[in-house]
Write a structure and sequence with these properties.
Layout (H helix, E strand, L loop, with lengths): L2 H23 L3 H11 L4 E7 L5 H8 L3 E8 L2 H16 L8 E5 L12 E7 L8 H11 E12 L5 H23 L4 H10 L5 H9 L3 E8 L4 E7 L5
This protein binds S-adenosylmethionine.
């Protein structure tokens, strides 16, 4: 089984408990992080939400009117199945009632989309799962129209020593134990911890955005740097 199948299957296994655990274990701070992320977006016609998962970011994008329609890409059909139900429920409350979200199964590192297909691209808690971060960022750059913005939300490592100690304890002890109990999956939440710790953040992440061609790149740490928003713009001449 290749790496992308493994990731897809891992998220398929935890899909049912993902939302509850996410909101419960973060004390709903993740909702605030997504709101802040969407607040950084400029209104657009067609957004691509990479690693859409259970569609929380997409729903926030629609709620804030930051895109007229959204395409979501993900490797996990089970995560998207839950996302679809949530979107249907949300869209049934929208006056026009038309389908605003399309779910596509696919790999963020080899996207099944034409160049310049979207005028904004987002990704929440997806990038650290990529086996090759630059390959994923390059694809985001490719499918964006010139002048379009990428907005990424990802876990990061706090700079304050005290917060770091609490963070380490939580991620290495509390979260894997509760995750194991609730999702009945031995590896998923240990993997989560490892993937957060071994990933880049802050200036280092911004350098990756720059290297693949984004400009006006900058970042905003949230909640003592536990999560960070990254923004970059595809230049008009590319
Ligand atoms: C932690 S969840 C985040 C989901 C959602 N964006 C959110 O904010 O809750 C990560 C998602 O990324 C997806 N994913 C991981 N690697 C991927 C890849 N290479 N291509 C597409 N989706 C991927 C997983 O299947 C999973 O649904």
């Amino acid at each position: 089984m290749d790496e992308k199948q493994q990731i897809g299957q891992l998220f398929d296994r935890i899909a049912r408990t993902y939302d509850g655990l996410n909101h419960g274990l973060s004390l709903n701070i993740d909702k605030y992080w997504r709101r802040r992320t969407v607040a950084q977006m400029k209104p657009a016609k067609h957004a691509l939400d990479v690693a859409i998962g259970t569609a929380d970011l997409t729903i926030e994008i629609l709620r804030r009117g930051k895109a007229e329609k959204v395409t979501g890409l993900d490797l996990s059909d089970q995560m998207m199945a839950i996302g679809k139900k949530k979107v249907e429920k949300f869209c049934s409350g929208i006056a026009s009632g038309e389908t605003k979200v399309t779910f596509v199964h696919g790999n963020a590192q080899e996207m099944p989309f034409e160049d310049a297909s979207f005028d904004t691209v987002t990704c929440a808690f997806g990038c650290r799962n990529f086996s090759n971060l630059d390959a994923g960022l390059k694809e985001m750059f490719r499918v964006l129209t010139p002048g379009g913005q990428v907005t990424i939300l990802e876990f990061s490592y706090p700079s304050n020593q005290f917060v770091r100690a609490l963070y380490d304890f939580y991620f290495t002890r509390v979260l894997p134990a509760i995750g194991r109990m609730v999702s009945h999956d031995k590896t998923a939440y240990t993997y989560l911890n490892k993937s957060v710790k071994s990933f880049c953040w802050g200036e280092a992440f911004v350098q990756h955005l720059h290297d693949v061609g984004f400009r006006e790149e900058h970042f905003m740490p949230l909640t003592f740097g536990i999560a960070t928003i990254y923004v970059g713009v595809k230049p008009l001449n590319r």
